Amino acid sequence: AAFYGAVEPGNPVVDSLEAELRDVLGFLRRLRGAGDAEPQRHDLQRRGANTLFNIWNKYKPRLPDWYYNDKLLKVGDSLVQIKEYKLALRQCYGRYLQQFSSVNPDDITDDVHKFKSTFFPNGFRDKNAAFTFHALQERNVCIYQMVCSNDRNLQNQESLQTCFNVLSSLRLTMQVALPQENLCWLIYNGTIHIYTICRHLMMIGQSAKVLEYLLWASICMELSIPLLSVHYLTWRATLYAAVSQCYFDCQAGIHGEVFARRGLIKIDELKQLENISSSQENSETRKIFREATFKMSVMIFKRAVYESRRKPKNYFRPKLRVSLKEAQNLSWPRTTTERLLTEMFDCTAAQFLAILEALSDSSRHVLRPAPTVPDEIEIRDVISELFFAGLEILSGNSIKNQKKCWRGAQTSTKYFFVIIAEEKGVSGDAAVKFIKLAFSYEEWDVFDSAVEFVTNFLQAQDDPRWKKAEMELKLLTLMQPLLFPRKFKCGFSVSEPTTREARVPRGSDKKQTVRSECCSGSLKYGKPSHELTVLATTVFTCVSTSKQNMQPDKEILFDVITFLWQKCKTGLQQIQTSGSGYFRCIHKYKACKWVYVLWIINEVIQKSNIADTDVVMVIEVTLNLTAILENTADS
Fold this sequence. Notes:
It comes from Asarcornis scutulata. One of its GO terms (biological process) is cilium assembly. This is CFA54 protein. The structure is a single chain. 64% of the residues lie in helices and 1% in strands. With 635 residues, the chain is mostly helical. Among the domains are: 234-303; 323-399 and 416-460, no CATH class; 530-634, no CATH class. 34% of the residues are buried.
């Protein structure tokens, strides 16, 4: 390339390389968007990989090292953007790192001196040092993404260990780069990668193990001078909140609150410095400080709302307590919990999110509901008051006393609901999460009251993304009488913003019929209930008519299918063990409906992404359906 002059656009060698890279990257982008069959797609990917391999071998001796290395990393970044992680790892980042030694970077995760001597023999002032840091960091990202593509739920122990190795490698890279202020971009990107991986691991119960990495990411943001600016405060507060959440997941709430209060102090220190250095605070800066303070306050409230009510064991508890049914006619704030909400948060949207966080528990599952079981009566009271307050905010009744932060409210039947598009309103996502929490805690009065007007709101929206939430609420409503041949309790109702009281109906006549059938046990022997069939048909419709990313939440979908399979398996076993010639008399014993339910279970598993969650169940469903169909065909 040097023979033709400067190595820049216009040089024949450079232009030829750029043209060939554009062709192969364009080919891979089109391949990513195409819907080819798996074998054909694999062959095309291999063709793209071979082409890229040949390009690097062809141009390496023709280009100076600095240009060749820069192009390696840029192409690698482009491949990451189109999610070709394996190709980026092997043909770009891995190829770049081969120049140092044959040592596997995975073998150097805790030895700083060996790491420096291997990858930075010329020190950090070398012009290629930034390239090397970038290649090491992106290599780890690619490894993590490749693990996720093969084992999204990280069920394999090897996959889990690989993720922790990636976290250790990212931490080591950041540790070495931290003293170099010009590499602050690497520290910032590293904290993002660590947070992403740790949040994934927290979702599968690994909070105790990821805590140290999130702590490290938080401290790095504090130790890097350029990252201490207001511009990065929102992200720093997010890391603080993640650390606090880890402590709560580990049942160490006191440490979570202490860390959140520490974060609040750090935010206040930065605010004081900002006031000194700037004579006039702009609206954007105020917004950033407000958001960061809110995140910390929510984590403090998460524990304070309970601990402020705990009493010593020998403390005399008065029998007379304010009834929520009586309190609903009072003006906001009506309970101790609502007064604390009003003191800590100055708008209803913030109060609602604080309620959600206080009720959230990583050990709870939506469709495996259980009532609150703490020994302290006060804690049970707090949980009831939180739902009571959340329902009041969601219904719009607290607007009478709190007029801040409500914009874009629209009337939905008898209730007010705040549209998600408005920044300061209660979002639709938050409302759906509140209903799921009510289901999880078996707060049936709250669930019945909230689900009706939230569903009305969702049905009125044109945005297809709301259809996913609507399907989830529909599944919860159908599962409710099946999980609980219900013990309906009379409870408080939602009152309209006017003085008139309006009770939400406890269920339609159809629902009452469903419950009476479930409770009576009058179903014919061997026949699935009508409600079970309706649930199976509904979940099949939800999966069949939706795109993969618009299907109901994976956890809910899996629990529904597991429930259907347990019922189906029990029903079939009862008929099979009755000695009545099951396969020959399939119609007589109503088994055809069980076969229909079993077929739906199999179809939903195939059309959704839950097959890897419980492989044993998938095998059982497939074998049972195959056996039934074969025997029916022979009979």
